[in-house]
Amino acid sequence: MSDKAIGIGLIGLGTVGGGVGKLLTEQANLFAQRLGRPVELRRVLVRTQDLAAAKASKLVPAALLTDDAEDFFKQDTAIVVELAGGVNPMRQFVSRALESGRHVVTANKSLLAKHGPELFALARKHNVSIAFEASCAGGIPIIYTLQFSLLSNRVHGLYGILNGTCNYILTQMTRHNQPYDTALDAAQKLGYAEADPTLDVSGADAAQKLSILASLAFGTRIVGEQVPCEGIDKLELADIGFGKEMGYDVKLLGIAERGDDGKVSVGVRPCFLRADDLLADVTGPFNAISVLSDALGHSLYYGAGAGRMPTASAVVSDILNIASGWYPQAFAQLRLTPDLHEPAALLPAEQLVSRFYLRVNAMDLPGTMAQVTTALAEHEISISAVMQHERNEGQHVPVVVITHEVAQGDLNAAMAKIAGLDCIAGRPVVIRIVDLPH
Amino acid sequence: MSDKAIGIGLIGLGTVGGGVGKLLTEQANLFAQRLGRPVELRRVLVRTQDLAAAKASKLVPAALLTDDAEDFFKQDTAIVVELAGGVNPMRQFVSRALESGRHVVTANKSLLAKHGPELFALARKHNVSIAFEASCAGGIPIIYTLQFSLLSNRVHGLYGILNGTCNYILTQMTRHNQPYDTALDAAQKLGYAEADPTLDVSGADAAQKLSILASLAFGTRIVGEQVPCEGIDKLELADIGFGKEMGYDVKLLGIAERGDDGKVSVGVRPCFLRADDLLADVTGPFNAISVLSDALGHSLYYGAGAGRMPTASAVVSDILNIASGWYPQAFAQLRLTPDLHEPAALLPAEQLVSRFYLRVNAMDLPGTMAQVTTALAEHEISISAVMQHERNEGQHVPVVVITHEVAQGDLNAAMAKIAGLDCIAGRPVVIRIVDLPH
Question: Is the bond into B285 cis (omega within 30 degrees of 0)?
């Protein structure tokens, strides 16, 4: 590469886009020194309805702003940075950038979770690259780690706290005994949760990220909609409390595992972790990912999974690494991205084997415990621990069971039977227990 | 790069070398698929006195083994992997590899801590690269993270558990109340500590690693002997216990910090961390590094810092990343390694500002506490907490003081005065308290 400045076009000047503009401006000298050539922001494309506010924000010089895509793509830019989010029209903008021979940096998890393979293939066709470190877990370098640092490893499992909003809410519930609604309210007041928090608390956001991470970790192809997810909005303080008594903390985990048969299991759900697991100590709006791989064993990556500057950190590193020429070389040479791989053979959910926490509300009558444990025994589910507290009032007592390893299908069948027992009231609760190496 | 096999020469077939041989052999197909070309181990150089044992080990085909450096360098190899360790003759072998146009992968921290700048410059001169992920913290990708993932960041501080032997011993002392000698004995029985554990327990090993990491983190040049170190062999269970009562856990930390004035402070010493800090939860022979940087904030990297396969993981990833062509491109283009930077302006140790834990053994007499606190006040050291337990026997009571932030030079002066007081017996204990963001 030459010593002349490399031109950058930026799409979107929201939270992260503003941070990227700020970093590129404030640290221009540092970056030019590290890279051996300057990086120059040449155009920022925003929606017409956002143009006035973008000019007023002073995040980038007003002369750089445009709401005209033709003007944007006319500029001399080598890298387009897409931070507007959403599938459309970003799919078109990213495609156009690649087709015009520009590299793309994106934080757009929903676009990559849905159209990643198509876009990676398009980049290859036009001899450019897509860098996407900021699409998963903000500034944590998990994408580079999976691609380059673990290149010598086969990954067996990936366990991620991938949504800071949920982790903040669960921290409030777990450590401060706040019910879900109170904790959500606090998250919204602090700006950790949107006014409509559905995408976060449903687990859908984490599922998109997990599809990207699992595709890289296993050298396969998984799209977001293949990842089943269960959110945190049904979690009750009672179960968090019983878990604690038994030495477990609850986390919303995105889990991807590959068995010896090559079958891949993916899913997002609240899980119990041993309270002394490092992931259990990840509190507040932070993210962390534990990776189990054959050569390295257990490794963990922790940091800010969202926010202006942490996400801009990943975006700008991607820009600089593309500008240096090494990232495009790695993208072209190494066979890592999902366009180069077959769709994953997914393990049917009912075949997932794990330990589980179960809780039912049972009548405080003779024989109740026998009926529950008999139903479990009929499905060959063996019990590791049972907890039933004395109750002074009311007729229902919570019965908590910790199982040994069991197939989820067998467990579901047993729980359906248990839910139908006369002595059981309400919805049984099932939470996966994840045993990571100590 | 072409599709033909890339030849590898390996120096040393010890613990890590054996793991590299095993990985390259067992995963040859996987690596060829990821890389688009095969990687082939073509020669393994061992010392004459190790040749028979290396042949008997079956770790690599006997035909690959040689004790003849001329034979080794005659082979068609593009990458030399140096895993024998020690400064000499490895300095000569690595130089010869570079001079003959071969890239080098090394895990040799003592060589890089002493001669890194000279060797990086030599690599540049011959248009090849040195990859050294395995030189610090085994398989944890801290070198790639500092170089590539944090390329957009200014690092302010780096806090590392960089020696698994010490961390195992401290875990035994802290969690199982074992005195130092018992814990060291356990570490030796498990193979975590050498028969002569000096290099580990003195902090010297961590200091070498810290010099490499600090050079990268701050874009400067620091050699191993510039890093002051204090080991764990003088630590007493009493102080670990008092720390616990006050909410602190002890860890041997390698700390590198850069002030706003650009001055760099480096050192390895036992430190107290808040018990709820993630680093405090890193137990057993594991390593972890917390990094504070301007854009990303606090991030942490955890994993196995030693051992055959974890270290081989980093070595083989380096081999594959060189073979793909991207690492040499990054090495050539980005201005990251210490050969390109000036020697660091080091902060004099007495100017280091921190909180400290102090413990003196005082006579249980009226006025003792007043003399101690007066000596501190005379040096303008303000006290955050004091703890003095009642004692039923003997005439000495341990007085524990937690200071506010103070310059180490002032503290040393005050402690010298206190140690000389008639009412004080034995050696005062001073342990740095490190407050990482929560």
Answer: no
Amino acid A1: pLDDT: 45
The residues that bridge with A155 in the sheet, in sequence order, are A293
pLDDT score at A2:
54
CA A130 and chain centroid, separation: 19
Annotated catalytic residue within B55, B58, B125, B209: B209
CA atoms lying within 13 Å on the CB side of residue A170: 36
* Block residue for tokens 């809780």: A359
Strand partners, A396: A363
Is the separation of the CB atoms in B12 and B75 below 8 Å?
no
Q: Is A248 helix (H, G, I), strand (E, B) or coil?
A: strand
pTM confidence score: 0.97
DSSP state of A395: S
Please check whether the domain covering A142-301 is classified as CATH 3.30.360.10.
yes
Residue A323 · residue B155 · CB < 8 Å:
no
pLDDT of residue B130: 98
| Each residue's pLDDT tens digit, A154-195 | 999 999 999 999 999 999 999 999 999 999 999 999 999 999
Q: Taking the domain A6-140+310-340, which CATH number applies?
A: 3.40.50.720
Measured between beta carbons, the chain B residues lying within 8 angstroms of A151 are: 34, 316-317, 320-321
Searching chain B, which residue's CA lies closest to the CA of residue A140?
B299
d(CA A437, CA A160): 15
**Count of A-B CB contacts under 8 Å:** 209
CATH number, domain A350-434, options 2.10.109.10, 3.30.70.260, 3.30.200.20, 2.40.50.140: 3.30.70.260
Residue B209 designated active-site = yes
Complete DSSP assignment for A66-102: ES-HHHHHHS--SEEEE-S-SSTTHHHHHHHHHHTT-
pLDDT the model gives residue A29: 96
How far apart CA A220 and CA A216 sit, in angstroms, is 7
Choose the catalytic residue: A4, A58, A189, A209. A209
Q: Which CATH number fits domain B142-304: 3.40.50.300, 2.60.40.640, 3.30.360.10, 3.30.420.240?
A: 3.30.360.10
Tens-digit pLDDT profile for residues B324-374? 999 999 999 999 999 999 999 999 999 999 999 999 998 877 888 889 999
pLDDT per residue as tens digits for the range B70-106: 999 999 999 999 999 999 999 999 999 999 999 999 9
pLDDT at B1: 45
Residue where the block lists tokens 């479990």: A376
Which of B33, B132, B149, B342 would you mutate first to test chain A, the one with the most A CBs within 10 A? B149
The span from the CA of A47 to the CA of A51, in Å, is 6
Q: How confident is residue A393, by pLDDT bands cut at 50, 70 and 90?
A: low
Backbone angles phi, psi at B396, to 5 degrees: -105, 135
Token pair of A9, please? 């076009």
Extract the runs of DSSP E, i.e. beta strands, from B132-205: 155-161
What stretches in chain B show pLDDT beneath 70? 1-3, 391-395, 438
Return the pLDDT at A158: 98
CA distance A162 to chain B (A): 15
Where are the domains positioned within chain B?
6-140+310-340, 142-304, 350-434
Residue B125: alpha-carbon gap to chain centroid: 29
Over chain A, what is the mean pLDDT?
A: 95
Q: How confident is the model at residue A216, as a pLDDT?
A: 98
Tokens of B385: 């907490």
- Within 10 angstroms of residue A371's Cβ, the number of other Cβ atoms is 18
